[in-house]
Design brief:
With about 80 residues, the protein is an alpha+beta fold. The protein is built from 3 helices and 6 strands.
């Protein structure tokens, strides 16, 4: 199945490693460093120009991608459960 992240961006649910709340997870310096390094290497895709609320970490053939999303983690989780 697929998960719609907004702005015509759809990802496969099987590729999702985790869905994380930006406010809570970026308290950790390790997470901030991880996101900054991923941004530098082009592994971050910003789905919306609005205030981001979450990020979705996905497995890809060549590593991983991070989708920055304006939707809350609860909304994304509900969308996932609706397709199951």
């Amino acid at each position: 199945m697929y998960l719609h992240l907004g702005n015509e961006t759809v990802i496969r649910q099987d590729d999702i490693i985790g869905i994380f709340d930006l406010d809570n997870s970026t308290i950790s310096t390790k997470t901030r460093e991880f996101l900054a390094n991923a941004q530098k290497t082009g592994q971050v895709i910003n789905v919306s120009d609005e205030l981001p609320k979450s990020f979705v970490l996905c497995h890809e053939n060549d590593g991983f991608k991070i989708y920055i999303c304006q939707l809350a983690t609860v909304t994304l989780s509900k969308r996932m459960s609706m397709t199951e």
